[in-house]
Write a structure and sequence with these properties.
By secondary structure, the protein is mostly beta strands. The protein has one domain. It is about 0% helix and about 60% strand. The protein is built from no helices and ten strands. The strands form three sheets. It has a five-stranded antiparallel beta sheet with strand order 3-4-8-9-10, with no helix packed on it. It has a three-stranded antiparallel beta sheet with strand order 6-5-7, with no helix packed on it. It is elongated and about 75 Å long. It starts with 7 loop residues before the first strand and ends with a strand.
Length: about 170
C-alpha cells in the first residue's frame, strides 16, 4: 500500500540509494470476503458486452513492517552505512544514504485487523461464452479500529479508500 504523500528522494552522498523520506512503515493488505454479483445487462450475442455489478464484504489484515534506512556511522575510513529504523526526529534528508534491506525489521511486524467492503462494475466482452475477459472498475474501503501509521508527521489512517480499474481474464468452469 502506498501513501499519497510518498515520493522517493536521493541523498547528496556518493553511492546513495533512493528512499522514501518520512516513511515510518511499509504496509501490505490481505483481504478476504464474500459477496454477490448481479447481471445488469445480459449479452444478447457474442459481439455484445455484459455488464455486472457486485459487492463484497469481509475482513482485512494490514501487515506493517518498520521502514529502515541506511545511515553512515563512524569517521573517516571506518565510516560504514548501517541500517536503522527511520525516526523523523533524528534524521534529515541528507543524513540518510538509502533504503535498508527488506529483511531489516521483519521481526518487528505488527498486524492491524479490520473490515473490508468493495463495490464494482464489470464489463465482460469475451468472444466465447466459456472465456472471461472483462474490465472491472470500482471502489474498495477498508476500516481499521486502530489507526495505521504510514508516514511521519501525518495522523494514522483508520479508513483507506481505493479507486481501481482492473483487467480480468480466464476461463469459466461452470
Amino acid at each position: 500500500m502506498k501513501h499519497p504523500k510518498e515520493f522517493k528522494v536521493k541523498s547528496t552522498e556518493e553511492n546513495a540509494k533512493r528512499f522514501v523520506y518520512g516513511k515510518v512503515n511499509s504496509v501490505a493488505l490481505f483481504r478476504i470476503g464474500t459477496g454477490i454479483q448481479n447481471v445488469i445487462f445480459k449479452r444478447s450475442d457474442r459481439k455484445s458486452v455484459e455488464i455486472r455489478c457486485s459487492y463484497v464484504i469481509g475482513g482485512v489484515v494490514a501487515i506493517a513492517k518498520p521502514y529502515y534506512v541506511l545511515v553512515y556511522r563512524g569517521i573517516g575510513s571506518k565510516r560504514k552505512a548501517e541500517p536503522v529504523k527511520y525516526d523523523s526526529e533524528n534524521f534529515t534528508q541528507d543524513s540518510v544514504v538509502g533504503k535498508g534491506s527488506f529483511i531489516n525489521g521483519i521481526d518487528e511486524i505488527k498486524f492491524y485487523p479490520g473490515i473490508h467492503g468493495k463495490l464494482n462494475l464489470s464489463f465482460e466482452y469475451a468472444p466465447l461464452s466459456h472465456w472471461v475477459r472483462a474490465i472491472e472498475t470500482g471502489v474498495s474501503c477498508d476500516y481499521f479500529p486502530k489507526a495505521l501509521p504510514i508516514m511521519a508527521r501525518n495522523p494514522g489512517e483508520n479508513v483507506v479508500v481505493t479507486l481501481y480499474v482492473g483487467f480480468v481474464f480466464g476461463k469459466k468452469w461452470f
